[in-house]
Predict the structure.
Amino acid sequence: MEENNLDRKFPSKQVPVQTINCIPPQ
């Protein structure tokens, strides 16, 4: 479910996985 929330803020297609991992879950 966390991935879905990040997907809304910025599509994982444009943002590398490393960047998503660096972002703390709100």
